[in-house]
Amino acid sequence: MATTKDQLPTILIADDDETNRALLAEILGAEQYRIVHAQDGEEAIEVLENGEVDLVLSDVMMPRRSGFAVCRALKSNPDTRLIPVVLVTSLSASEDRMQGIESGADDFINKPVNKEELLARVRSLLKIKQFTDELDHAESVLFALALSIEAKDPYTEGHCDRLSESSEALAKRLSLSEEERIAVRRGGVTHDIGKVAVPDQILLKPGPLTLEERNVMQRHTVVGAGICSPLKSFRSVLPIIRHHHEKIDGSGYPDGLKGDAIPLTARILQTVDIYDALTTDRPYRKALSPERAFSVMREEVKKGWWDGALVDELEAMVQTTALQN
């Protein structure tokens, strides 16, 4: 167990009854947890927005926001959705429990609180939170590595962020699942992470690559998938990393996949990637206008390279965004 204040797990106790807050704090304080308090649901949200919290113990019936509302807000925010929430309640009806589950609650504890039950559940959920924090750290390392590769070339500055944002927007336009939208967002950042294995004299070469150099460059898709494969949370991202250079007619790499055999998420990222490359400055040419870029892409669709339906959807999305701006 850590001994310094900053290292102690932080538990937020949200309850409008001061006696209940004091009882829970007394039980947990003996375990060397750091305790913070909220008198109602609105204050609980403010605490969560302004500080690091590892677990929430929340009453259900509170002023301004109920425990259910706090839980829904917490779980809908990407920055806080992995924080475990335990609803402490005297409600016992099954519909109340169902509402808690639908709100995203991780556990329930009935009042009056049993000390041993409370401590056991808190310890278990904090252990799970530690695992998710370690996973988040591993993903952050991958993102940092991917962005360091991007930073080598001044012409690709901001490419990963644009690709991540636009790919997710296109996936949402196509009504893909949340898992698929998350995958293309992550893929936007990490799709070229395998270029860490490509020597700089090849990666940054201004002129055409030799056959041998091109073979080295094309290996980055396989290398990238290998780098990310240990993370289970990246299972849906791996096909994007490996297959974002395949072509509809089978002339792409690394596996020569054709048509619908190329994962849709990979085709989405690929389409956005090509558009972004055409509409940003390069050493050998200036950025193309959106109209000219889509004209070039349609010529390449005729050659059998890209998914024409996705090019249409991307163009419609770009035009809609331009009109809104």
Domain count, please report it. Answer: 2
CATH topology of the largest domain: Hypothetical protein af1432
Distance between the termini: 52 Å
Quick check: average pLDDT? 86
Residue share in helix: 40-55%
* CATH class descriptor of the largest domain: Mainly Alpha
| Percent of sequence in beta strands | 5-15%
Strand runs, count: 5
* Count, helices: 14
Strand order of the largest sheet: 2-1-3-4-5
> Secondary-structure element sequence?
EHEHEHEHEHHHHHHHHHH
CATH architecture of the largest domain: Orthogonal Bundle
Describe this structure in words.
- The protein is α/β, with parallel strands linked by helices.
- 55% of the residues lie in helices and 7% in strands.
- A 5-stranded parallel beta sheet has the order 2-1-3-4-5, with helices on both faces.
- Helix 2 (41-50) packs parallel to helix 3 (67-76), helix 3 packs parallel to helix 4 (94-103) and helix 6 crosses helix 12 (264-278).
Q: Helices and strands in order, then pairings?
A:
Layout (H helix, E strand, L loop, with lengths): L9 E5 L3 H12 L4 E5 L2 H10 L4 E5 L7 H10 L8 E5 L4 H10 L3 E4 L4 H36 L8 H15 L4 H13 L9 H4 L7 H8 L1 H9 L9 H6 L20 H15 L11 H13 L5 H17 L1
Parallel strand pairs: 1-2, 1-3, 3-4, 4-5
Helix pairs in contact: 2-3, 3-4, 6-7, 6-12, 7-12, 13-14
